[in-house]
Write a structure and sequence with these properties.
Elements: H1 2-32, E1 36-37, E2 48-54, H2 60-66, E3 70-71, E4 74-81, E5 92-97, H3 103-109, E6 116-120, E7 128-133, E8 136-142, H4 143-148, E9 152-153, H5 155-160, E10 163-165
Parallel strand pairs: 2-4, 2-5, 5-6, 6-7, 8-10
Antiparallel strand pairs: 1-9, 3-4, 7-8
Length: 171
């Protein structure tokens, strides 16, 4: 009986924690952008596309946190795609996986595309992978995967990661 009485009090707490975690991850997604150098410079004012591929854990939270935000004078737009492809119109892609395409398949599709891939505790992580650490949202970076796609990640961002797979020096 006591468990039933307490359960409504526990549910909002869990939900608010999940909402806070989603908001933190959504904020990280667009905050990564100033620390990434993409190989091709786009036209000033062209939107920076932040894509959610597959399952969307953010919902309206992501749209709210990027509203009015810009990166180097470029407005941020959110696109939601069922599947990734090498020509996906994204600069940053959060890959959630789905029935249509697994995280591994999406990462393979974007392997050499100039797209920063972000995953969430995936068994096959992207260039950036969110990991829980002491009740906080942290991330790991695969700098070699970024190099393979022609991206350069700032040392400032690398210094904030819990771990970094370094890029292999060019021969």
């Amino acid at each position: 009986m006591l468990a039933l009485a307490l359960s409504p009090a526990v549910v909002p707490s869990v939900r608010s924690q999940e909402t806070l975690e989603s908001a933190v991850k959504a904020t990280y997604l667009y905050k990564f952008a100033p620390f990434i150098d993409w190989p091709a410079v786009s036209t000033p004012g062209t939107p920076l596309a932040l894509c959610v591929i597959g399952a969307d854990p953010f919902g309206a939270v992501l749209d709210r946190v990027v509203t009015g935000q810009t990166v180097a004078g470029r407005p941020i737009v959110v696109r939601r795609l069922a599947k990734a492809a090498a020509d996906s119109p994204c600069q940053i892609a959060f890959i959630g996986g789905s029935r249509a395409q697994s995280v591994k398949e999406a990462l393979a599709a974007l392997h050499t595309a100039p797209v920063l891939t972000v995953t969430d505790g995936a068994t096959t992580p992207g260039m950036v992978d969110f990991v829980p650490s002491g009740g906080r949202v942290r991330f790991q970076v695969d700098d070699q995967a970024a190099a393979d796609s022609g991206l350069r990640i700032s040392s400032k961002l690398l210094s904030l990661a819990t771990s970094v797979r370094p890029r292999t020096p060019a021969p």
